[in-house]
Design brief:
With 305 residues, the chain is an alpha/beta fold. Helices cover 53% and strands 15% of the residues. The strands form 2 sheets. It has a 4-stranded mixed beta sheet. It has a 4-stranded mixed beta sheet with strand order 4-6-5-7, sandwiched between helices. The two termini are 20 Å apart. Bound molecules: uridine-5'-diphosphate (UDP) and magnesium ion. The site of uridine-5'-diphosphate has 16 residues, from strand 1 and helix 3.
């Protein structure tokens, strides 16, 4: 579980998950990744680790983001299968039982929780999520509109995931890219009991850009396509202008010039921007910085490879 500023509820929530797994006799370990919380979260997590011997935890030196927290968990987890879930119980824990059954009895390697409905969200969130998922689907052919990070992964999927070398990740997209025998089970997103969502419009935009660039280079092709389209347009206009000139009917055409200037100018800027984003990503990747920095550990936080 990635955990960020969840001090009020983390103890109770982990107990809910633990009790459920115990009651179904599902053998388990719980790994909590504190993503640089600024409240009492780490104290609460430490208390959990002291109380229960099968709970371990990592603490990041600062907030690296949920993606990094998931990476840390996948890199260090042990066991035959792993379930990633939110710490705020918006991912219903009861579903874990069904996930485990599908994995154990029916041999699925990936069991994905998909959102049957997206719970209570503001109009702005609905719209921007809709726009993003639409774009993403266009570019990658994958419908992650209902996808969530709530997934069960078999050991071999995790091993394959660990071999992906990139630093910037998008868990939902990458686990889809890996393939394997997969099945989706729908769930209803629960209301948050306390606290509020940690996403800000800024961090969500970052995640969206990350998701697209980590997963597809389609925008770069769009830039090239745009260039070709503009060239065709320019050629047509060129012919028309020349004909007008030779027929002696060349108009003053100042408005046209301004419009074309603006159009081409904005296309060039947009294209440069898109290329710049990819360039920045290459730059970030070549620095080969770690995805996160660990500052504390409870029970040396697993790690078996
Ligand atoms: N989270 C995290 N790092 C962050 C933001 C969130 O580890 O920078 C965790 C958070 O504690 C929760 C999960 O990611 O367990 C989902 O976050 P949140 O509930 O804020 O997002 P939402 O449910 O609105 O998508
Ligand atoms: Mg949540």
């Amino acid at each position: 579980m990635p955990v960020f500023n969840e001090a009020e509820q983390i103890f109770a929530n982990v107990c809910v998950v633990r009790d459920l797994l115990e009651s179904r006799a599902i053998e388990h370990q719980i790994l909590l990744v504190d993503d640089g919380s600024r409240d009492q979260t780490w104290d609460e997590i430490s208390r959990l680790c002291e109380t229960y011997s099968n709970i371990s935890a990592l603490r990041f030196s600062r907030n690296f983001g949920k993606e990094s927290a998931i990476c840390a968990a996948l890199e260090r987890c042990t066991g035959d299968a792993v379930i990633i879930m939110d710490a705020d119980l918006q991912h219903p824990p009861e579903l874990m039982v069904e996930m485990e059954r599908l994995w154990r009895e029916e041999g699925y390697d990936v069991v994905e929780g998909v959102k049957a409905d997206r719970g209570k969200e503001s109009v702005a969130t609905k719209l921007s999520a809709g726009l993003f998922y639409g774009l993403f689907k266009k570019m990658t052919d994958i419908d992650i509109g209902v996808a969530s990070d709530f997934k069960l992964l078999d050991r071999k999927v995790i091993d394959a995931w660990r071999k992906l070398p990139e630093r910037d990740t998008f868990f939902r997209g990458m686990s889809a890219w890996l393939g394997f025998r997969r099945i989706q089970i729908p769930f209803t997103v629960q209301q948050r009991t306390t606290g509020r969502s940690k996403w800000t419009p800024r961090s969500l935009t970052g995640l969206a850009v990350n998701a697209i660039t980590a997963y597809t280079s389609a925008p770069l092709y769009v830039v090239a396509f745009l260039g070709i389209a503009l060239m065709v347009f320019a050629f047509v206009l060129l012919v028309q202008t020349l004909i007008m000139k030779f027929l002696g009917g060349a108009s003053t055409g100042f408005t046209t010039v301004i419009i074309i200037q603006l159009l081409i100018g904005s296309c060039v800027m947009l294209s440069l921007g898109i290329i710049g984003i990819y360039l920045a990503r290459i730059y970030e990747e070549t620095k080969r910085r770690p995805r996160y920095v660990i500052s504390d550990m409870q029970r040396q936080a697993l790690l078996d490879s």
